Amino acid sequence: MVLWLIAFAVLALLLPKVFAPLSPATNYLLGGVILIMSLTMGAGELRNVLAKPTPFLAGFVIKWVTVPAAGYIAARTVYANHPLLAAGTIIDGAAPAGASSNLFAYLGHGSVGLAVSLTFVHTIMAPLLTPGITEFLASRFVSVSFLPLFVQSLEIVVLPVVLGLLIRYAVRQERIKRIEPLLPVASALMLYAVVLALFSSAAPAVYRNLSFVPVILATTSALIIINLAVGYGLARILRFDEPSCRTIMFDTGVYNSGLGATLAAANFGAFAALPALLNAIMNLLIGAFIASLLHSRPPLDAPHPNP
Length: 307
Hints:
- By secondary structure, this protein is an all-alpha fold.
- It has 15 helices and no strands.
- The radius of gyration is 18 Å and the shape is globular.
């Protein structure tokens, strides 16, 4: 998937006019990705986690405090003279955790129930937290209005989640199970279309600032690594079991940069979406690498290999 994302990003930069017509559909495409994610969610995981809520509550707080703080520090230091990139980095850091964090938690012997529950609650709370954090932290760089961000987040995030859950509970589970093998493919195709749309829109600004792109890439990669390390380190300090620590690590460091890029482009311009777009690629690369390392190192304190 990572190689396809890179290939489509390069293709969009080389042929921006070809893929520019996709731009008006970006919100709908990303909403489709989130709808598909919600089709696989159930209440069972959340009930199990709430029976032992401390790691869940800690993971929620760690993600919504440390990741926006790291984005703000990067905005103040690296992007002090680039207000659009500063705003784009902040809004990306204020995005909820991504569905790929669940996959990495599974592959890395984390707690899958905790991962799914955190992603679900992050997603539901995003329409309030993402605009609020962005307005609070990014207002010193650009003009930010809470209400448009709130409405966009409702349309892109909450509406698809509610629709997906309604479909899940209105349709017999056997029918959902039948189409589940097709859901990742459909989700990937829509995500590729989002990448094509956003990179084609950003192409003119990328070419004008080509010499600065390596700085954005290095900063984005550093933020991912720092967030992963901080998430794991704080979980260890709180003395959670190893599967919970690994889950909180991925939940903190791997977030929904597709949403961050879409909101950044809609509110601050195409160039502001570049940090989130590069994050979408790099968090998959870095997350997959760490998950593969942890896959061969099952935690000693896990009751099951993959809870």
